[in-house]
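Q: My hope is that you can spare some time for a protein that puzzles me. Underneath my words sits a plain record pairing an amino acid chain with its backbone structure tokens. Those tokens are not coordinates but codes from a learned vocabulary of shapes. Thank you; the sequence and its tokens follow:
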Amino acid sequence: MLTRIARRVAVDFADTTAYQTQQGWGITYGELDRAADEAAAGLAAGGIGERDAVALVLESTVDYVVLFLALARLGAVTSGINPKLTAREINACLDVFEPGLVIVGDRLSDTVDGDRFVCETLIPGSSSETVAAEFRIAGAGAPGLLADDPDRPVCVCFTSGPTGLPKGAWYSNRQLERIVELDTGGAWGGGGHGISSTQFAHVGFMTKLPWLLASGRTTHLLDRWSAGPVLQLISEHRMPAVTGVAPQIALMLAHPSSRELDFSAVQAIVVGGAASPPALVREARKRFGAPYSIRYSSTESGGIGLGTDLNADDEEALNTIGRPRPGVEAAIRTEAGEPVAEGEIGELWLRSDCIMSGYWKDPQATAETLVDGWLRTGDLARVDAAGCYRLAGRRKEMFIRGGYNVYPMEVESILGNHPAIAEIAVVGRPDEVMGEIGVAVIVVSGGHEAPTLASLRDFGSVDLAAYKLPEAVRVTTQLPRNATDKVDRRALTDFERRTHDPSN
């Protein structure tokens, strides 16, 4: 399916720039198609074929797009591994995926265990002719189209469980086809300009590349997301939509350019990945002069879920996650899967043709999460009288920092080895920019001084990505416990929300 769309846009938008880099060069849709053909030929010559697993440990560059398209033409299964993860975390994902080949960026080569995985190093291209150069056979003809197989795996997107252990949500042609239909409404083309706001390893790219191609737009790539350049691109190219995660919107609003540039072309602000505080929604609508839509989804839902209407009143726009998008069903269930009473809080379940096929090589986790076609999200919510869904917390302790899931037990397992810590619990605290940040609540070991925040972050940085590290420390004489002598995380979380909630 991905190949079919890429081939068509190579004809319909042959001379349109598909991706424009910050270095000033770009690649057209026609050139992108040719590069993917040549890379497919090189990968095939190296033994890669249908259903082979290949991991991409790469920055979000044109090379990534070319290789993903090339692998899809061979029927291989591609998993992007977030380059922001530490070496320990990257190799944990690879252990689950079990790739036959890992393509790793030259600046990331030290992150992959070369003794356990077959690796090939890629040097990022500097022109349309040099992208994925190590894998291309110049002048190679287009590989033949594979027989149609809706259930053939195409990609695996990694997330984590409550202990931080990685799980790979896998998607087939069937789901990607449906995501295209829902996101485009069946329309083709449209053109214009857009910005890539997430890592390409994210579900927001991996499952949505087909419709991004189908749009025929020019996507601008930044070496590193930064509010100033993003605002400049939105204004210069008169982009009709501002997209990203809530912390990115907050950073844009804090940048002086947001008060100086022309955003009259903006027609919508579409934001997912993390909670959008009401104050952020109000200010963004005022600054960009456009309505704000909050989107709720997950890695397992294919990036398709619920959203607030662009024409919503303030009650919906500021305080809810809206209603199910077309093609999506939602329900509030008890732990046993029974419907809850009207207005009561329960677990949010979703059902659509976009939901993952399952967790890669993990039938037990798949059975626990997918029930009779429904996805158990693990989030708690209720439905209000207007039919809008309101989040009420999370069934497990995970919190979201800047659009990334953070699982306390994983962080605690690393920081708990610090010599000055006797006990530790990590909980989320509301934050105006990041949505939530991690707070390490610690009991200090006898004979030690309380560790500073800097020392804790330095201690954990070897094994944890930066976004997982705490951004505040609170020292206490003892952690609160419940009747079963377990740490009372709810009490800790409630304390942080009472004392640090920006809305209070």
Observations:
- The chain has 15 helices and 26 strands.
